[in-house]
Design goal:
The chain is about 45% helix and about 15% strand. By secondary structure, the protein is α/β, with parallel strands linked by helices. It is elongated.
């Protein structure tokens, strides 16, 4: 933690921070970092590669899922602040109304055993699939099997996996924490819940499961937002290169 803090104070001509929703701009202001020496940008995404239908169907089969199953997905590192436990605790409530619901948890991390134990305690083994860590080139096809993508982190839900889900046109369920609302507009390109309590998650998922027209609309909204507002990695890196070249040129002129 100390090393993370010191990075902000290291002498630099420009500090570029990833906009992951944790409000780095407020940290910069607190540390009195000049706005002229600070930039906060979203990560780039590959906007061209979409899920491969055949690959997604094969992944469904490998996980023992049929077309009749309503698939919920959490895709991120299994770490304390990612809070996959919130979705797991919502599952018994969801299953009462949507017995075909299945939860797919993608990723690995220090909380893996704890999360698996919670699934066992709630008797959800038959309704939950763990994939473990997957290679990045399989993320899009894995997202392709999800009817609903859920992100219920602490601090912020504005991470790369949420952006990937938008590009793939998934139905997104998340909550209003950090600056998640900068990307997710409730009832336009996702569901932005007021909190991440299991009851709220369950109620939101059940509503979506029973309303295919709304799911289609949110799918279109997510993809449209990604196309119009998210940057490709090439564009994102070009911004950084242009900024650095400009800084170097001005410093050279002053010399």
């Amino acid at each position: 933690m100390v090393s993370d803090f010191l990075r902000w104070l290291w002498p630099a001509d420009m500090l570029i921070v990833t906009n992951d929703g944790t409000q780095g701009d407020k940290v910069a202001k607190l540390l009195r970092i000049s706005e002229s020496k600070f930039r906060m940008w979203l990560n780039g995404v590959d906007k061209e590669r979409l899920p491969n239908g055949k690959s997604s169907l094969a992944l469904r089969a490998c996980l023992g899922l049929s077309k009749e199953h309503f698939v919920l997905m959490c895709l991120s590192r299994l770490d304390g602040w990612k809070r996959q436990d919130r979705v797991i605790r919502a599952m018994p409530l969801i299953l009462k109304e949507i017995p075909t619901a299945r939860l797919v948890i993608v990723g690995d991390g220090p909380k893996c055993q704890e999360i698996e134990k919670l699934v066992q305690e709630l008797g959800l083994e038959g309704h939950t699939r763990f994939t473990g860590m997957i290679k990045h080139n399989r993320v899009r096809d894995m997202l392709g099997i999800a009817d609903v993508f859920l992100q219920t982190n602490d601090l912020s839900c504005l991470g790369s996996s949420l952006l990937e889900a938008m590009v793939c046109g998934r139905v997104i369920v998340t909550w209003d924490v950090g600056t998640t609302r900068d990307v997710i507009v409730d009832d336009e390109n996702g569901c932005l819940m007021p909190d991440a309590e299991p009851e709220t998650i369950a109620r939101t998922v059940i509503t979506l499961a029973k309303d295919p027209d709304k799911r289609k609309r949110l799918t279109r909204g997510a993809r449209k937002f990604a196309e119009e507002h998210l940057q490709s990695w090439d564009d994102r890196l070009d911004m950084e290169i242009d900024l650095i070249e400009g800084l170097y040129s001005r410093k050279k002129q002053r010399r």
